[in-house]
Amino acid sequence: MKNVNSIAEQAYWKIKRDILTCELEAGAQIVQSQLVERYQMGITPIREALKRIEQEGYLQSIPRYGYVISPITIADVQNIYELRLILEKPSVQLAITRAPDSTLEKIRESADFTYQYRDRESYLKFLSMNTAFHVSIAQASENKKLADMIARTLDEMTRIFNLGLDLRDSGDEMRREHILLANALLKRDAELAEQILHDQITRSQERVIERLVERISNAPIPRVGIDFTL
After folding, report:
1. Which fold has domain 74-218?
2. Which terminal CB of the chain, N or C, has fewer other CB atoms within 10 Å?
3. d(Cα 200, Cα 174) in Å, to the nearest integer?
4. pTM for the structure as a whole
């Protein structure tokens, strides 16, 4: 007989993956019986997985009904992208000042990656590489606390990033942005690197907000908790 905790761990990762990739949509209501059928697992591991995911903030429980997947609001998107700019601009400046050429060369080598449009698994791989790329720049700043904050922020943004990827195929554009940023770092052109980073983050935010507004407009009933104000 399989260990229940092991099955609960499997349930946790499967449900969380579908939330992060928006297969389970933000604002949607779910009940345990639906997930039992969806994942072909028992009620106990599903219940344990949901409790764990709720603690992480991706679910909100509704007494006597089930759960709502925490909505993504326009205000949420604006706030977290603003935080990215606040954190990542100094990391770029410090990396240019402090990192040896060998480190910046490695960052440049890691910049050449993209994704397959409409392929969820490809999205996850791309976002993992994207996080690693930006965290490597932060680590090159030689400020561990700053690097840790950027890593946590990017992890928190996985679900938001997925919204933007689904809007249109921007893989080549994002690949060019990363390469341009890495080249600017290698040239130690702080002004150019900061501008490229700013433009990249701004365009990413615009894609996510466009996709979010599109989903709101197409929904027959407004989703729970979505903020329509900019």
Report:
1. Four Helix Bundle (Hemerythrin (Met), subunit A) (1.20.120)
2. N
3. 8
4. 0.85
User: What phi and psi values does residue 66 have, to the nearest 5 degrees?
Assistant: 165, -125
Q: Which residues pair with 138 in a beta bridge?
A: none
* Range with lowest mean pLDDT among 78-92, 187-201, 213-227: 213-227
Distance CA 99, CA 137 (A): 9
| The amino acid at 125 | K
Q: What is the pLDDT of residues 19-65, one digit of tens each?
A: 998 899 999 999 999 999 999 999 999 999 999 999 999 999 998 88
Strand ordering across the sheet containing 59-62 = 29-30, 66-69, 59-62
CA–CA gap between residue 112 and residue 133 (Å, rounded)? 10
| pLDDT confidence of residue 227 | 41
CA 91 from centroid of its chain's CA atoms: 19
State how far the Cα of 185 lies from the Cα of 123, in Å rounded to an integer. 26
